[in-house]
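step: validate -> pass
step: tokenize input -> pass
step: predict -> running
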Amino acid sequence: MTPRVEVSAKRVRVYLAGRLVAESTRPSLVWEVPYYPAYYLPAADLAAKLEATGESTHSPSRGAGTIYDVVVDGHVAKGAAVRYRDSPILELRDLVRLDWSAMDEWLEEDEPVYVHPRDPYKRVDVLASSRHVVVEVDGVRVADSRAPRILFETSLPPRYYLPLTDVRLDLLRPSHTTTMCPYKGTASYWNIAIGDVEHRDLVWCYRYPVPESQKIAGLACFYNEKVDIFVDGELQERPKTPFS
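step: predict -> pass
step: emit ->
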């Protein structure tokens, strides 16, 4: 399947060790996978040097790619760039793909963005609700709320964010897990202890979400895929998602 390529109007800057690697007002979004895009930047917009590693990669859709080290002021990110100079997708030939995790900072305009670029076709809505939400794990009621905030995110099931006062805090055990989301921020997790069984990372919380998702700050959310959720007395089907 040929990935979609779309030029963005955002100014994108990339940093390594505090040094500018690239700055572009014409980045391209490339949907290499269905769930989110990657940034490909014009080679002319790189401030860093690319040094060929002698290695290559191959994509069925993008063709043969040459792998480079990214070098800026003596700092090196090994194998952190790839170019598809002879790609069958003409728009990619003058672009460079930088490994997101190999860079230290990505900015869209003047704001940091994490994990991957924001998808312009993805929407996140957080709505206050009076629906009655009950969460059970192994038949034990672990949350009961009539004041959820329901987060609707494109391509994912509704997520029910509940006040901590409506959650059985005595059953929660702190986890060392954290995850990052470009639309919501950094989440911390809890395990749930039911008797002698501890279910890992079933509950998360964005204590300091990004401004667009402030309405979920300090609320707890459970994986629909892994617990039993009742909404207004009706058991919800466990959805099949990448988090199942």
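step: describe -> The domain at 5-112 is CATH 2.170.150.40 (Metal Binding Protein, Guanine Nucleotide Exchange Factor; Chain A).
step: cleanup -> pass
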